[in-house]
Amino acid sequence: MNSIESVSGVFTVTITDNWSINGNPNGGYLLALMTDAMLNQSENMTTPVMTANYMARCVPGPAEIHVEEISRTKQFHRFEARLIQEGKEKIRALATFAGENNECVISRYETTAAPLAPRESCVLIPLIPRYTLYDQLDVLLDPECAGWMQNKLTDKSENKGWIRFKSGAPYDLLSVLLIADSLPPAVMATYGMMAWVPTIELSVNIRNLPQSMWLNCSLRTRFITCGLLEADGEVWDEAGNLVAISRQVAQVKKL
Which class is domain 116-255? Predict the structure, then answer.
């Protein structure tokens, strides 16, 4: 998604306009850039846990990512990163990367992926000017939650559907971070189009790399209070493997 260069823990990057929502670079894309910088410093690479606080809006153009090691143990390597643009800190992120654990024998899922209609019955999010994220991704919304695009609202704030890269590019840790933040805000199912739902905090925990091109993604909001909402997300592959879980806190700004 982006090439980075480093000098003593300071990485230069270019934020592109290829992954934007109404001209605003996607939060998952920005987190992927910061994760890429931290991975360049980390001895461990598996099951990353990422949390980012978005303090100000980023724009397409040059930026710096400053990476600092927090702690290092046999199992975990932890970092802090700050994205600086136009002389201001725009995002601060924390990351924990685990080492390979061949003795991990506990695996238990107490839920499964969200039930989705067959892809041929789902609704493709159309190409929209300045929504370049959907130039890069196929996003098929389940008909149960896609009515908001025709102002047919539901009583449940949930968006769910199938997602894949149009290019057919294979998945890695960075692309999973972007996928985890690619569904439209769940609140649109109940309120319709919003002016903007800017992310305040985004946490993503990657559990497995996908074993299929199409991914089952869901995003659910249950509480809206004083203009703030939470959104819980899941990403699964077609083999039934949990790929990632996410939690997002965002503002609600109506049209």
Answer: mainly beta
